[in-house]
């Protein structure tokens, strides 16, 4: 059971702990490079270090053996755009600028990052970092250029500007900084040409090579394994003729390959292959021991929401667009040779909004905005026992079945759906959220109800009332 006294003690201690960690990192010859790699719709159970039995992820599993796995790490949201906002700004869904995908706002138009938002890249530039986002941006929808990476602290951008572009792996257009980068030889409808994931990976490796004198921050946002499900044949080959159940796929907006299970596995393994290429490059440049790599996913799985062959959501309930654990608890592994104790595991509850203060901690600076919701998890990365704790983790989501809110406070998880009684789960004994214990715990239920009311600020673009897709 959490208590106000315990929370107050953590808050009072936090500045001292962060200051001490800053001094320790600042004693290094140069601040560490930071690479944050984000998969798209990858489930908690889709990686070997979280129990995957069918898909091969040897490089991510190596990172887990030689680094640290967070078992209780959460995405910013259960869909793409708001999750990325939380990651970059250090604010959860109760306070973030972007709280929903572009077609699910209360004002009928997309909401992007704005001039008042301070991102991880903004903060690290203050500390002398070179900054880049390569891959899927997805925070500059419509014609609003304020949300473009160049206006949000990034020195360099290459990849997809918005969501719809990122639905395809053979696009005829990507972006380099603020300028379209045309690929006329690609045939989106017939999925031929140059596989965009490969283009993005090559660009990222080249950028790291060119900026290896550091310090640098690279946000590498892969689109794998988001629909559409297509991958070159060499990545499918290891998964052919294994006797797997067939999952035929149709072609519509998403130009899927004919066989879903083989394509999905091939996509994840291709991404894992490229994680190996990244690690090898860092070692070749002699900067692996001064580079922290974090790998995670933006939300729970979409492809396997009902089937259980891959067991993509692991032991959890739900997937993408749910606020049950399967929709928001995501894989997390961090790799930093010589700094992170090898083979570590932590059940420290953490979330995307913790990246910004962690990056500031690594750079030896304090966050610009004191109202952020994040708490640095650097002490946990380093194997220290002085990790400040969150009072609560908060989410809200408002699409077809919304609005829905969720809270995690210690062992307790509360889910509140529109016009329905609060659901309460004890994650320690029921991580699958199968047994609603709200009636048996009236004090906890009452505390959660009160906390829901104080965990968010009103926003006219994201009213907590039912609304339709724009």
Outline the structure in words.
- This protein has 470 residues and is α/β, with parallel strands linked by helices.
- Helix content is 26%, strand content 16%.
- It has helices at residues 4-26, 58-66, 80-89, 120-126, 196-210, 233-236, 260-284, 325-328, 355-363, 378-381, 442-454, and strands at 33-39, 68-70, 73-74, 130-136, 156-160, 173-176, 179-182, 216-221, 291-297, 332-335, 344-346, 350-351, 393-397, 404-409, 412-417, 423-426.
- The longest helix is centred in the middle third of the chain and has 25 residues, at 260-284.
- The chain is globular and about 60 Å long.
Explain the layout of strands and helices:
Layout: H1 4-26, E1 33-39, H2 58-66, E2 68-70, E3 73-74, H3 80-89, H4 120-126, E4 130-136, E5 156-160, E6 173-176, E7 179-182, H5 196-210, E8 216-221, H6 233-236, H7 260-284, E9 291-297, H8 325-328, E10 332-335, E11 344-346, E12 350-351, H9 355-363, H10 378-381, E13 393-397, E14 404-409, E15 412-417, E16 423-426, H11 442-454
Parallel strand pairs: 1-8, 1-9, 2-11, 3-12, 4-5, 4-8
Antiparallel strand pairs: 2-10, 5-6, 6-7, 9-10, 13-14, 14-15, 15-16
